[in-house]
Automatic annotation (TrEMBL):
Family, as annotated: Belongs to the ABC transporter superfamily.
Range of residues in the leader sequence: none
This protein's name: ABC transporter ATP-binding protein
InterPro entries: AAA+_ATPase, ABC_transporter-like_ATP-bd, P-loop_NTPase
SMART domains: AAA
Naturally occurring in which organism (per UniProt): Zavarzinia aquatilis
GO molecular function, one term: ATP hydrolysis activity
ABC transporter domain ranges (all copies): 2-231
Keywords noted in UniProt: ATP-binding, Nucleotide-binding, Transport
Matches recorded under Pfam families: ABC_tran
């Protein structure tokens, strides 16, 4: 869905992006992370066709953004960290305006109500945008960029200014948009929340790609769960007892095994019963939750 090749971007006194290349698959949620000044916002603005790179190529669903920027923009929704609203318009009129700007024709009332409902604004439709709190303004900005159901959604710090309940609602929204087939890129410093819905992590540091890979524990993407089995002492026949599981990895000391498990909880319980019944000294057994923050720090340190 998103193909970036050899992207370079220069500010007058600094190279912000240097030979950046990656591919983002359709229907995924990518966490774009990195230190302050790493080039994340510049990369998002290039993807959104708001900045023209010095070199390189960006394709959105096969469309070259340099050659056909207007056509590429029809696929996009982009939330800038420093967004603007028409403060004198009501929430309804703001959304109606954006529906028209994105090319929605005819009766846009259904699209306006759907976007407002998704962001918890259906009871605020007649209020002026300028009278809303910081968190509600953030919600309105998000509603505006999804009103046309874009195929690609780019979001820069979307949770900024949201209270905990609204942040949980944003995570639910991102998961539902992904389930509808939307490809989403989210830049944020709140790694705990990114882990809850992201399928991939793209790390940028000093204008270069440090790492780009699936996130093992992301519920939003994985068709299977990563399980972790801990033994109190090494035991023969562990692999045989586990059977034909995917991605099996056992630590050198033989005490910890990790593997992918695609079946339901009943099957997981049956596997545990079989392991214990077979005499294995099981000390712990459950889902292996990979820490996005730990992985981020590890990859960042390794790149320096």
């Amino acid at each position: 869905m998103i193909d970036v090749e050899g992207l370079c971007f220069d500010y007058p006194a600094k190279r912000a992006l240097s030979d950046v290349s990656f591919t983002i698959e359709p229907g995924t949620v990518t966490a774009l992370v990195g230190p302050n000044g790493a080039g994340k916002t510049t990369l998002l603005r290039c993807l959104a066709t708001l900045e023209l790179p010095y070199a390189g190529r960006i394709r959105l669903d096969g469309i070259d953004t340099g050659e056909e920027p207007l056509r590429a923009r029809r696929l996009l929704g982009f939330l800038d960290e420093f967004f603007g609203l028409y403060d004198d318009l009501s929430v309804r009129r703001c959304l109606t305006y954006w529906a028209g700007a994105h090319g929605l024709s005819g009766d846009t009332d259904a699209a306006v109500l759907d976007a407002a409902t998704r962001l918890g604004l259906s009871d605020r439709l007649e209020e002026r945008a300028g009278s809303l709190s910081r968190g509600l303004r953030q919600r309105l900005a998000i509603a505006q960029v999804i009103i046309h159901r874009p195929r690609i959604l780019l979001m820069d710090e979307p949770a900024s200014g949201l209270d905990p309940e609204a942040r949980a609602g944003l995570a639910d929204l991102i998961r539902s948009l992904q389930a509808e087939g939307m490809t989403i890129v989210v830049s944020s410093h709140i790694l705990v929340e990114l882990q809850d819905y992201s399928s991939h992590m793209l790390i940028v540091d000093k204008g270069r790609i440090v790492d780009h890979a699936p996130i093992g524990g992301a519920r939003a993407y994985r068709r299977s769960r990563r399980l972790r089995l801990v033994l109190s002492r090494p035991a023969d026949g562990l692999a045989r007892a586990l059977g034909d599981v995917a991605g099996l990895a056992v630590t050198p000391d033989g005490l910890v095994a990790q593997f992918d498990f695609a079946e339901d909880l009943e099957a997981q319980a049956a596997l545990l019963a079989r392991l214990v019944g077979g005499g294995l000294p099981v000390a712990a057994f459950g889902e292996d939750h990979e820490s996005l923050q730990d992985r981020y720090i590890e990859k960042l340190k390794a790149s320096r």
